[in-house]
Amino acid sequence: MSGFSFYPGKNLGACGEGGALVTNSDAHAARAKSLREHGSTQRYYHDEIGFNYRMEGIQGAVLGVKLKHLDAWTKGRRRVAKRYHELLADTPLQLPIEANWAESVYHLYVVRHPRRDDLKKHLEANKVGCALHYPLPLHLQKCYASLGYKAGSFPVAEKAARECLSLPIYPEITDEQIQRVAAVIRDFFKK
Question: Which pTM does this prediction carry?
């Protein structure tokens, strides 16, 4: 099974909530369909407690229009990522790595640095947008407290959460804007 999010901020986003689940298993497909329909396989008869996970038609219509542009948007994001790689390669930032057997769609362009918070303040002070995605690892989220994990249980995830910073990336960002982001970052490391 694979899941896809169509959250509005995603590369292929709806205008509201939406997602898709795909599988090559008839049994998994049948169970997923039942769960999305309040645990029902026949209208008004419920075999188990389920959910209302049916995507609204308007979301599908929006996605149908946007899907035609996805390849061009992906090329745009890859262009931006390539340019960031070129402009930031000799900085102390840890840049995203793309495996030679894969091709990233760069939903986000996430860099890492131990002084992430200082860099974020510097970018914001210079009116450069940036974001922290997932600043608290799952095992430290309140909803998982009953599992008993504490700080130090997953040090790699905790380090990533402290160091990751997302730089601006979208298909239409101009080379001038990318160069400005890189210049502000370079300025941070000169100080």
Answer: 0.88
Please say whether the beta carbons of 89 and 95 come within 8 A.
yes
CATH number at residue 124: 3.90.1150.10
112: nearest Cα among 160, 146, 171: 160
Count structural domains, the chain: 2
pLDDT tens-digit series, residues 161-189: 999 999 999 999 999 999 999 999 999 99
How far is Cα 58 from Cα 166, in angstroms, rounded to an integer? Answer: 30
Residue-range definition of the domain harbouring residue 12? 2-67
- What does the DSSP assignment read for 131-189? B-S--S-GGGSGGGGGG---TTSSHHHHHHHHHEEEEP--TT--HHHHHHHHHHHHHHH
**Same domain for 47 and 77?**
no
The residue to which tokens 């049948």 are assigned: 30
170 class by beta-carbon count within 10 Å (0-12 exposed, 13-18 middle, 19+ buried):
middle
